[in-house]
Amino acid sequence: DAGITQSPRHKVTETGTPVTLRCHQTENHRYMYWYRQDPGHGLRLIHYSYGVKDTDKGEVSDGYSVSRSKTEDFLLTLESATSSQTSVYFCAISERLAGDSYEQYFGPGTRLTVT
Amino acid sequence: LAKTTQPISMDSYEGQEVNITCSHNNIATNDYITWYQQFPSQGPRFIIQGYKTKVTNEVASLFIPADRKSSTLSLPRVSLSDTAVYYCLVGDTGGFKTIFGAGTRLFVKA
Questions:
Q1: Cα dist. A54→A33, A68, A69, A91, B39 in Å?
Q2: Interface of B with A in 48-87 (CB under 8 A)
Q3: Which residues, 6 or more positions from A85, have their beta carbon under 8 angstroms from its beta carbon?
Q4: What are the angstrom distances between the C-alpha of B99 and each of A35, B87, B88?
Q5: B56 pairs with which residues across the strands?
Q6: pLDDT digits (tens, 9 = 90+) for B34-87
Q7: Do B95 and A104 touch (CB under 8 A)?
Q8: How far is A102 from chain B (nearest CA, A)?
């Protein structure tokens, strides 16, 4: 399995509090992603990074910010958590393969509950 | 962005071959087709990827017709442990613009 860890694995927080989730990789992959997955749904891309300090918005970026100061770490911050952000958050990494293709490796997920 | 359409669920029996078809009518010229498998409480896991024709690896085959508007994931001789959700993705290099649909929930029975 790819070397991806997420912390914390579980978190319960109150509405209005800031929350930061951490993704750490040991593969030295260039690309990193944050997704959220809600019950019965596929994953939705929140933000992604294509290098240190290079990030961009995904499909559902409102209410989230990210930072990547080192290749191995990608942080996701909920500035002021809301109940609608209760979800499972997955981090992923990828690197460009031969022929312009890619393969994403996913972390174990963080289950966040906002009460 | 190329969206995908897959059956919501499928049932099969151990030892059978399972074919899951994905429709992606708006696939772009440089898009690859990728399939992932997800078990409960785990992140998705890469199964196979292709651009055209047929790709085979140790766990699955991927069939892509010439027009690339659909693709079929073939799982030979499934077992109970293949019960999972299978996602078809179509996307550009890096996966920045890929979209996960709801996936196909495969249930393998004994």
A1: 12, 7, 9, 16, 31
A2: 49, 51, 87
A3: A36, A63, A78, A112, A114
A4: 11, 10, 9
A5: B61
A6: 999 999 889 999 999 999 989 999 999 999 999 999 999 999 999 999 999 999
A7: yes
A8: 6
